[in-house]
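Let's sit down with a protein and look at its sequence and fold side by side. Go ahead whenever you are ready, and we will take it from there.
>
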Amino acid sequence: MDDRRSVDVGGVRLAFRVSGPPGAQPLVLLHALGEDATDWDGVAPALAASRRVYALDLRGHGRSDWPGTYTLDLMRADVDRFLDALGLGPVELIGHSMGGIVAYLLAQHRPARVRRLVLEDVSAPRPRKPTTPVRPDGPPAFDWDMVLAVRRQIDSPDPRWLEGLGRITAGTLVLGGGPRSHVPQDGVAELARRIPGARTVTLPVGHLIHRAAPGAFTETVTAFLGASPRP
């Protein structure tokens, strides 16, 4: 059973859900654009069998604050402050799509904070042709201004993000969704090549690996993470 909480991280309140044995190895989950902590519900119980799992709502999403100012670097700083506020580290970190960008930014900015890193269907940060996102009908569970701001950054990423991948020291697993994913898989392969020692596994079920194949996802991830170290 998970516990819903929130914490202030430099003037922004981040909501999160926590589950698993207190004192176990901390594992932090970062969701994709437009999602929230509930996106991990299908896999969190299995991951929490041996770990203390923290699933966040990133700024502009879900129950966290919608402050009106959004960059992926600010999201990275929020997660960094979250770890400080809860006294966590080194942590294991899983990021899906946009959450994967936030995850690798943290891993390159603060290498000592991340023990293991899992990047789910995330491409190397290369410029891409912009497209216009379609606003959903009805009130979304996220700030639409956040979507526009983040999409601009993903379309034209900071060149330092690509250069910084070589500074990641965490053991890293890069998961690809295969040909059914809209994410270019050559970009996923490049991401893995640029992170020292990264492993690559393809689960050919599309972009939403942890939802489409929760059993295969948790089996692959837990095998990579290995036994949880003793507190």
Remarks:
- The radius of gyration is 16 Å.
- The chain has eight helices and eight strands.
- The helical segments are 44-47, 72-86, 98-109, 144-155, 159-164, 185-194, 209-212, 214-225.
